[in-house]
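Quick question: who can interpret this fold?

. . .
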Amino acid sequence: MKIKFKHIIVLITLLSFSLIVYGFSLDEDQASSAQKYIGLGTVGLFLVAMPLFLYKESKRKDMKDYMLTKDNIKKMRDKEVKNTENQ
């Protein structure tokens, strides 16, 4: 069985959300452990799952297409003029 990269990301995301929900569901008597669960869920979500997702999605992209060079700015302006003419 081959586990894909996106399945790992979904698993980490679900685990992080479940930790956050579990932390909020604990009583006030266990406030310190509740904060730990909420913190672990947040760290898992923003420092593990999000960078893995961004790496997976940007792997095949060419970063030169997203840089603000003179050529790209000119292309954006040309597209904007064409879109306003159609309206």
